[in-house]
């Protein structure tokens, strides 16, 4: 039951459309467009702001050119005009600043809004998946999708899209201004385009490699740290600090080197564009200077041209630098799109919700059930079981006998391969999942606690449940004395793994959940951890309270827990091999007796 769904009692109400799997890149971008579309007006506004900002920016050298040629050198320069030009120049700078500021804010808002919606969809979609999905997809991968893949997507909006729009438009407008000023010199500049293309192409694959290498090294480092944190008790118990330290140093060094290599490549790439820009300026000074001296070109035009030439290389360099981000954003968007296209294996039957909701009495029937995690390898075989409402059933068997699998089927974490399971005579596949999950209360072997207060954990963040009800539930199961010893009582904050509480104490909190939410069927996967006799007694008493007039299935690891059960099922290799009360089973001197004696530390011969 270790992988039982965490937010078991919470209904997941997020609905998604599920496109086909193995999404090609065109559909990746189509999917993104679906998120972008509601913000299309914002993007139009961003574009307008960019246009105003660039125009204001590019008009500045032109203004200086007009001032030099038409006023300064033409001898019309007056003090008043000097101030006027300076004023216009300043106003253009302010306009540039204002629209750049608005454009940046709008784009950040749009980007973050889209990424937040993608993250929400991902989280909701993951919550809809069947447990088999979590068997196939390691938790680390899913965390990466929700955190770093969406972060890369956010970079796409804040860097790539911005650069494509702003730098692309700047380039077009610069070329336009250059052609207007002097088209022959423009042709000289454009002749450099093949050189630029050559540099970009030769750097591109190398930059991508260094980028990917740096990402790989950081993933290695992060997963190593995560692994070590998760298994810190083992690391300490086996005195592994030294070994783990040297493995960490190796990974840290690799990341450090990969990062330096990436930065070096990027600096070299930028510098080559700077050099190219300076060469062009030198060339212009030579050619253009000659033309000015021969009075074939106005000095102001040369000034403006040189300024535009310097500006010309910046957007090209900026756009090419976004290449690797664009690549990784495409990969991340592809992964997100693939994840969003996975359809849950277990869904509500279209006819299921049509029947009026009736209170579930708790009668359980397994009819000829066969199931295996791999189809060819059944772990439950042809199993029949009838449980009366209110009956308490103990399930025992050696490890791997199929006890947890039986319970997983009843919770519909997996669907049966053949046969059927019924609650109150109705096939569970016809129950809406939310209704089924409300009818069954689950207390896991390692109960999951949320990071929140004790109160939040018992009422599962449902504010409609009165505090008094929570306190009463805890009192009834005998957890109030444990909670009373906590520093802030019911408001004490528990960490996500419930550290600070023993497995037994965490189970008691889960029992209180049962009393609060009142499911008709209770499933208890008893904690295997050694418990002190006091906690064990508390659990035993709590079980009596919560199982009262409630169908209860207990997977027992300590047989003492279920000696008083109405019926005990003994499982072996996916089948029920013996069935009866404790006394009846001991009388037949079979497998149960062996297990029982073994649990007492005795063998049959004794
Ligand atoms: N998620 C899974 N994917 C594949 N095989 C699984 C999965 N869960 C359990 N199994 C296999 O199914 C068989 C039955 O396992 P199950 O957990 O139901 O046994 P169990 O009686 O509950 O054992 P335990 O007392 O150790 O929890 C085992 O062979 C186990 O390896």
UniProtKB/TrEMBL annotation:
GO terms for molecular function: ABC-type oligopeptide transporter activity; ATP binding; ATP hydrolysis activity. It is found in: Cell membrane. The keyword Nucleotide-binding applies. Residues 44-328 form the ABC transmembrane type-1 domain. SUPFAM superfamilies: ABC transporter transmembrane region, P-loop containing nucleoside triphosphate hydrolases. It comes from Cohnella herbarum. One of its GO terms (cellular component) is plasma membrane. It is a multi-pass membrane protein. InterPro entries: AAA+_ATPase (IPR003593), ABC1_TM_dom (IPR011527), ABC1_TM_sf (IPR036640), ABC_transporter-like_ATP-bd (IPR003439), ABC_transporter-like_CS (IPR017871), P-loop_NTPase (IPR027417), Type_1_exporter (IPR039421). The chain crosses the membrane at residues 39-62, 82-102, 160-179, 185-203. Residues 364-598 form the ABC transporter domain. Keywords: ATP-binding, Cell membrane, Membrane, Nucleotide-binding, Transmembrane, Transmembrane helix, Transport. The keyword NADP does not apply. It comes from the Bacteria. This is ABC transporter ATP-binding protein.
